[in-house]
Amino acid sequence: MTTQASPEAITVEALINGQNVKSLSQSAKENPANPTEIVGYFPDTTQEQAVEAIEAAAVAFKTWKKTSIEERVASMRKAIEKIRAAENEIVNLLSREHGKPLYDAHGEIYVALMWMEFTCNEAAAALQEQVTEHDHGKTILSYDPIGVVSAISPWNYPIALSTIKIAPALLAGNAIVLKPSPYAPLAAAKVAEIIASEFPAGVINVVHGGADVGVELTTNPKVTKIAFTGGTETAKHIIKAASDTIKDMTLELGGNDAAIFLESFDVNDERAMRRIVVSNFLTTGQICMIAKRVYVHRSIYDAFVDKYIEAANRWIRIGDPFDPKTTVGPVNNLKQKEYVSSLVEDAKQRGAKVTPLGTILDQKLFDQGYYLQPTLVTGCDAHDPIVVEEQFGPTVPILPFDDEDQVITLHNESIYGLTSSVWGAEKEAIAVARQLEAGTTMINTAAVQGLDVRFPFGGFKQSGIGREYGTEGIRTYTEPHVINVPNMLDLPYIPE
Question: pTM for this structure?
Answer without folding.
Answer: 0.96
